[in-house]
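Hi everyone,

Forwarding the result from last night's run.
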Amino acid sequence: MKLLRSVFTLVILSALLSGCNSAMQAYKDGQKKFANGEYELAIKGFQKAAQENYEPVQTSYYIAESYRLSNRFKEAIPFYKQALDAGLASNDARFQYAYALKTAGQYSEASAQFASFAKDTVGSQALKDRALREVEILRIADRLKTEKMEVEVKNIPLNTAGSEFSPTVLGRELVFSSSKKEKIYKNNGQPMLGLYKVSITEDPGAIQGNPVLLSPEILAEDANEASPAFSPDGKTLVFARGNTGKKNSSKDVDLYMSRNVEGKWTVPAPLPINDSLAWDGSPAFSRDGKTLYFASNRAGGAGGIDIYRTNMDASGRFSKPVNMGRDINTAGDDMFPYVAEGGKLYFASDGHPGLGKLDLFSATRSQGVITIENMGLPFNSPQDDFGLVFYEGLNRGFFSSNRDGGKGDDDIYYFSAPEDPDSTTIARNNDPNDPLNPNNPNYINGKPKVVRYFLGGNVVTAGQESIPLDSAIVHIYPDTSDVQIAQLPTGSDGKFGKQSVEEGRSYVLLAERKGYISRREPFSMTGRSIPPIFLTKELTDTTFNVTIKLDKLELNKTFVLENIYYDLNKYNIRPDAAIELDKLVQILKDNPSMNIELSSHTDARATDAYNMTLSQNRAESAVAYLNSKGIDADRMVAKGYGERELIVPNAKTEEEHQRNRRTEFTILSY
């Protein structure tokens, strides 16, 4: 009997261990797929781990992030909530949770979560600023809902359970993007996108026949092809192609061109304006065909994805792309430009005040002033609304949306407005730049609204108890030069300021005080401009406050350098580690009398001797890097500690092992 009980116990233990190993493997597979941008497969792996209750907090978080990064915000909501309610330690998760709530139209809940995130002392300052802006935007969401045009909108027959979007008109045909290919896109689990066409009937909302492939020459089975744009003569096509898996999936998108020669489209070729390190997409031609507009997240923009323009000459050469500026581009995503008759620009944005994620906007320039107007209902919803084009005039056309009530993911909608010139139509007959026009957000009582921006703040001690520091000096520089523009002392309350700052500019604040480590703090005005719709008077003064925390200058005080990672069993400095080490370079330059020990630590998953050698090599590699950046070698000592000073002695999870694998610097003298 005892033998039977022992055998039974072993069977149960074996089953439990097998289930645990299976869940752990599913979790690791999910992490691998997540890192590769294969979010649909990652979700399946994490869901399997969740069934066994393996790493429940991180599993819920990964599922939420997978849905978000594949543009399925509503599906992410319950998983963000589960992770946060269970005590998730992620600085940015609450912001993303709030944003997902906003896309679902849950404005009051979203506002509360944004406000909670903004009060957090740990989160990213840039996201905190954006969260505060979102709180302000949500206050006018109900007002935007009243901006309803007399327009009829209907879902057209060509839409499927998949994705159809970015319509454009070529003669009497509607050309659009659709997920109809055989190969599945691992990002979202849908078939990959291609370009298709269908005939337009007398009633454009009805559509005639079934969609067919635009051209066999414009078909790559292993890539997504989307956002077609035709030149005014219909002989040149520019579109986006990418997501082949050859590069990072979020950046592997470029613009391609094909020409119509004797009725056939040529094999597409990439445009020279593409940035190999960026996402380039959603092209559009000007009405004369001489300018190409497109969207890109290349370096140097206002935030996420920005709208750019480039000129084309008669021989097909392109000028250097130019950013459309911060009146149009925001810290969010601004994309899907379209130029209508008369030169008016329409685009989609989640950075301007809107109802949810991407909203449709119009931009009008008059006497050097650009007016941005949300198109309101029924064009916009809490979800993505984008890709607007007109058809035979300015009173009807098509746009894309993944709003509730559609047939699939993204759907194409047809809209039409009354022909009566006295009614409110898409092409508003009242001048949007007329100071006396009550719909113009740039003016009040016929006078332009003006905002003056200032920068101030306070200097406090670092640590749990922030004590104001008097007699500190705060130097302010443009981020592009070392020419000081202000020097502000702190008072007994630790406060300094205020200094005038300009929209769209970035600055660096250097705080110094005797007995403390001098520190730099970046400050950018990008995305901080107050939209005119929020302004209620002619002159508004706004001061942004920055808190700078200074560490006391003490012997043997140790600081952990975040995000200093090395490849497995290697000690060369990776590009991401170099970014963090450059911050230490600046600290040492700002504190020229400070000498340090730079130490490297490993986890305990190899032999002690091996880890000692590896950590020493890594420490020496970091010191050599700092020396190459101008820091005197005599000011630094490299020391490897291997696994001898573990923060988590019995680490089990990968996160715990990562805490042990750290790089630190300790003050030796000053």
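The two ends are 74 Å apart (CA to CA).

Cheers,
N.
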